[in-house]
Amino acid sequence: MNTPFSEVLQLRMSRRATLGALSALGASTLLARWLRADYAPQAADWSSFEPLPHAADPNMAVAKGFRAQVLLAAGDPLLPKAPAYRAGVADAAAQAMQFGTHNDFIAFLPLPRGSRSSDHGLLCVNHEYSDLAMLFPRPEGACDKDNATREEIQHELAAQGHSVVEIRRVEGSWQVVRESPRNRRLTALTPMRFSGPVAGHERLRTKADPEGRRVLGTFDCCSGGTTPWGTVLIGEENVNKRFQGEPVEGPEKRNHKRMDCGSELEYGWHRFHERFQLAKEPREPNRYGWVVEFDPYDPQSVPIKRTALGRFKHEGATTTLDASGRVVVYMGDDDEFEFLYRFVSRESYDANQPERNARLLDEGTLSVARFEADGSVRWLPLVHGTAPLDASSGFASQADVLIEARSAATLLGATPMDRPEDVEAHPTSGRVYVMLTNNRLREQPNTANPRVRNLHGHVLELIPPTGATGGHAHAADVFRWEILLQGGPPESGREAGLWLSCPDNCTFDPSGRLWISTDGMARNEFCDGLFAVELTGEQRGTPRLFFRAPIGAEVCGPCFTPDGSTLFLSVQHPGDSDAKGSYKGIHYNNPPTRFPDFDPAIPPRSSVVAIQRG
Ligand code: FEO
Ligand code: CA
Ligand code: CA
Ligand code: CA
What is the pLDDT of residue 45? Predict the structure, then answer.
């Protein structure tokens, strides 16, 4: 496990597979049948562009030959009675009807349902967090968690969660369909329910929910995914930052320590809501840190926390199909030295059985990855009753294993990673790409995380075996793996947009090219961006900068329409820090950019951007 970095790098980087042969492998699989419709004709050539130079600029930039349109910004009205955006005003009721803050994951789901429409659809967008210093003005300094008013905190709860927005392309420009009955907000107060092995368990029971089956809301909704049956998956990530107090003695102490509950408090919600105080409601944190599934086509649908997928700091949850038809969900736990997970459903997906599909994520096997120096990666099942996941280690049932998935994974010998963010399976080659954003705390390298003090991150490529009758065996126990690329500037050509740092989210364009968005270029004094990365040929593994965010922002949520004619992405937290990544002295009245409004009366706002040719 401790092979020197130089040897490991040589080992991994030299084992380049012949990708040309791989496209044939997927042709006979269910996965290919499902995806072929999405990845058929190309409406735009996304490969032919001159890379942008790296720079730090108050405005966004996109490669020549393309145009970028700001479609939605935090606070824009969505629901029929939503008032117009008012800068700096705390109004929780208004915010609950408006687009939320800090947009991250984006999915485009065509309208009508089941079609391949690329002119009309539902944009499903996560809202990751809120920033009081940039939401509300103070005469001096910044609004923060300790001086925020009740209404300001309530506004934050309403700004969290998810937005469903009907959009339409009219004469080449995207428009929000205001007052659509399909528009919807999920917030930190929306009623939801639990399903799967942990639903109803005593460790979910609280004063407000004595049965452990109902829960108010979702928050810290980072990345996510969609399913073959048209639902959206939301990853609940840094939920621990909402909970105040030291982990108290008792059955939850180990659990809360491992999830950093109490030690990383960043919000003031506990001041007005007892459930965020560990001393008052020690089980409340167990109700967050899950994957939430909901049906965006049904505005009345009740979102469901799918406990079979485990509880940790979920970056996202992306699905593919195993050669057998079972649903496979890949998930990263974005923290230093945490793990890469995979869920495999017990039953198979069947497009003709929607009611059965609605339960697919409740039964199956959660596994965690252990990387070996011989180029293999083994998936270790998190199943209660098999040593050491039994009473001797404090796990009385599968519910305990799922609630404390991190501790269970450690006991199994999973490989501690450099902050796993997005994980996506390629639609035709079946290879799985893992964004490892960085890990400045790493002193001890391991085979899949070979750099000490990894400031720039890297991308792994996992290669599932071929199934018995063809296709990709995503449910197999053992895959192979390689390093696709490592982040960081080259010794020369720093400004050339041919390298990246801190990979975060990814997607594939209609040609199967990988697109990677970044969150951390500021440590190089450049803005974050979206990069195209070839997976085959001479340029394999070389990023090319296509879109550059304004100062302070990360780029996330890249998503193509089915025909590939539009690329949506999130510009998150513009202007919250300066060109060097420092937050010092930056607040509502003193931001380094006022993107996208550039109005001195309006603070910078996170936005959804639509990019097309022309
Ligand atoms: Fe919310 Fe891991 O980024
Ligand atoms: Ca992220
Ligand atoms: Ca993605
Ligand atoms: Ca990130």
Answer: 86
- The domain ranges of the chain are 16-42+51-237+289-613
What homologous superfamily does CATH list for 16-42+51-237+289-613? TolB, C-terminal domain (2.120.10.30)
Atom of ligand 1 nearest to the CA of 128: 1
pTM: 0.93
Q: Which of 308, 311, 378, 364 is nearest to 338 (CA)?
A: 311
The answer, yes or no, to whether any atom of ligand 1 lies below 6 A from the CB of 128, is yes
pLDDT computed for residue 39 by the predictor: 40
Q: What is the pLDDT of residue 140?
A: 86
User: Residue type for 578, please?
Assistant: D
Identify the three-state secondary structure at position 507: strand
Residue for token pair 């008013």: 149
Phi-psi region at 388: left, alpha or beta (left = phi > 0; alpha = psi -120 to 50): alpha
Q: Which regions of the chain are under pLDDT 70?
A: 1-43
Q: Is 334 in the pocket of ligand 1 (CB under 6 A)?
A: yes
Continuous segment of H or E residues that includes residue 62: strand 61-62
In the prediction, which pLDDT does 247 show? 83
Q: How many CB atoms lie within 10 A of CB 511?
A: 14
Query: pLDDT (tens digit, 9 = 90+) per residue, 66-103?
Result: 999 999 999 999 999 999 999 999 999 999 999 999 99
For the chain, give the number of residues: 614
Grouping H, G, I as helix, E, B as strand and the rest as coil, residue 162 is strand
Q: Is the CB of 554 under 6 A from ligand 1?
A: no
Q: List CB contacts of 509: < 8 A, sequence separation 6 or more.
A: 46, 515, 532, 560, 564, 567
